[in-house]
């Protein structure tokens, strides 16, 4: 009556474990994973559509030579609407997500230079 | 040469530990403390075994940080955590009752140590069982003392001034009344066959082949079920069911008060498994299918056999916990009284017949 | 003129009915009875709700349910966001079945805009719906197993769910809040090589469900706790307005996919899973059977899908504009959520933001069905019954 339970559990002890030893073994995310953003300098025209469509108003357009977006990752919910609406596909999402954790709230505001990868 | 040296050693041991020596009781007390320390280490091993085996059943990794790759010292980390937590005493608890409950549970578990022989040292044909004391009614004493822990749980439930704890306490008493009877009856049936209440005699009466688990299979199954109910583990852990009763009797305990009770449960599990091995599975006798290897049973080999059997029993107890759902309290009492009790009576009759055959 | 003192007296009377005090009938206690509050932080389900049980010994005599601890005001938030900005908000109504919530919202807006997505998008949306159903049932049944003390079953189901979430993540890019359908189509197409991976994962899940069904049917301790307990009759179900697996377990075969079919469900051949008695055992069995049926639906959809465009040729709005004006009107399109019938009634007044969005969630009725079932059961049955209804507190409170 309960023997099927035991049989199944004992069979399962011989199968390999499916968990990973965090943080030594990193998680594998898919190619389309919606992580932190990356900006392409040549393609961005500073139109402001990404700022207008963001549901949490995490994007602001600031001056860095021309006009570029500045993203506050404390408010961003990684929905991907800004990436969909960009007319030149200048804003894309990478697989990076561990950098979006920080004890300092103001360190999460990424200016255009950080989004383009030119500065730390 | 070797025999003479051993004789001198044994005489020296009698001189040190025996009753002619005025320091004898003190020395025996130190040995008792060492035995207690050994039990703590084995409880640590029991906790580790449970967590590691549970993670194997569930395709996980389990403890892997403290103490090497396999997390052997995990309980030490847990103990340090429990020591450093704040000791919260709620305002309206019944002071002495609430504070004494974990101590009572821990004490009852430790009182069982003095009568259990953890293997034997066989030399020159004589068996010296490794027990702190040996007395003639040891199995009766063990069963009586293990029931004291129940009063501890009831004190915890009542003294906490908490509705959830009170419900847990009542469930606990209902469970115990049902299963102590069946436990006692199976132990009595073993005693009938052997003819003595001394646990060492029971072990020696089972040779290598005639273990009571094979001769009285019904008694073995009933004893196993009642033992798991006695230890308060799933499927009988209604008194600490997390989904209904928050934490049952342990709701108002934090820090080392909870740690004592938690530890006491694991020591109870360790010692209960020891008793099961000794009474039903042949104690330290060599298993029948290994007799062909002609390994002589001397020295500390019986201790090794005892420990191997003990680990197997504990693994089975852990498997039962993680493989079955919890049953309801009214089903617990109905199983205890309507199924196990009549079967235990049937087993008693069978044991009486066996006892007649045995004494021929 | 109305007397001020009469008004105050009446207000005090009304307040006394709503205040949590022993003036109410349900709270009058005999000598043998006790009131047990399984409080807002409850161990039964994730999400706060309060259930007051009047118990006598170990039997429950009466119960009262208090909800609303998690109210976030989602319907009001949606009034101040444009239609495309409201899509990530609808993800978070119930985070387990977020694709179904998106689907309900997008279907209603498409009916207002009077556009229909092309066939390839419809097939992709059907595949995502069924994948979401599989993972929601796996997690719901696993949580119910922990409430019985059967922790190992939960871990087995979570393990299978990870493979399904990997499939979903390959398409949408996220594990729980997907924001995937768009007005007139879907966000992205299926990636290359996804079809073979999906067929492997689905056949594994099919096998594992057979193993779960055998485990549940042959375990005597499990059946002692679930057969004959928490029974709902057909009249109870109709009175409470329940839908979903809890309704189908009593024998009524109402499934929104058959009664009001949207997308390409008429072209796909599947059976509605029902059971006889309506107790806990049957509800769980209906869910496990539905997982297997969903695997079969996805396989059929993958066979029938053909290459094609993702959006229709003429759209009444530019695809890359953040706001669009929706013609005035109202629309209500029900779909089959893993828990029941879900729909959003959207009223539009011609601007780019909706005038009113009313969300008809299935979980509210599941919670309402709980107090009538809790007459004369044991305390230990309360978590089992509550968890077998598989309700979601964040959808109840919105």
- How many E strands of chain C? 9
Distance separating the two termini of chain B: 41 Å
The whole-angstrom Rg of chain B is 22 Å
Largest sheet of chain B: 2 strands, antiparallel
Portion in strands of chain B: under 5%
Global outline of chain C: globular
Assign the CATH topology of chain C: Cytochrome-c3 Hydrogenase, chain B
Shape of chain B: globular
Series of secondary-structure elements of chain B, N-terminal to C-terminal: HHHHEEHHHHHHHHHH
Give the total of beta strands of chain B.
2
Helix count from the secondary structure assignment of chain C: 16
Helix percentage range of chain C: 40-55%
Please state roughly what percent of the residues of chain C sit in beta strands, choosing from under 5%, 5-15%, 15-25%, 25-35%, 35-45% or over 45%.
5-15%
The parts of chain C where pLDDT drops under 50 for at least 5 residues are: none
Helices and strands in order:
The complex is a heterotrimer of chains A (120), B (360) and C (398).
Chain A: H1 3-13, E1 37-39, H2 49-53, E2 59-64, E3 66-72, H3 81-85, E4 91-93, E5 109-110, H4 112-116
Antiparallel strand pairs in A: 1-4, 2-3, 3-5
Chain B: H1 2-17, H2 24-57, H3 74-83, H4 95-111, E1 120-123, E2 126-129, H5 138-146, H6 148-159, H7 163-194, H8 199-205, H9 212-215, H10 217-231, H11 242-245, H12 256-280, H13 301-323, H14 329-358
Antiparallel strand pairs in B: 1-2
Helix pairs in contact in B: 2-12, 2-13, 4-6, 4-12, 6-7, 7-10, 7-14, 10-12, 10-14, 12-13
Chain C: H1 4-18, E1 34-38, E2 50-56, E3 59-66, H2 74-79, H3 86-91, H4 98-113, H5 119-148, H6 151-172, E4 181-182, E5 185-186, H7 194-218, H8 220-226, H9 234-240, H10 245-248, H11 256-259, H12 280-304, E6 329-332, E7 335-337, E8 340-348, E9 356-360, H13 363-368, H14 370-373, H15 381-388, H16 393-397
Antiparallel strand pairs in C: 1-2, 2-3, 4-5, 6-8, 7-8, 8-9
Helix pairs in contact in C: 4-5, 5-6, 5-12, 5-15, 6-7, 7-12
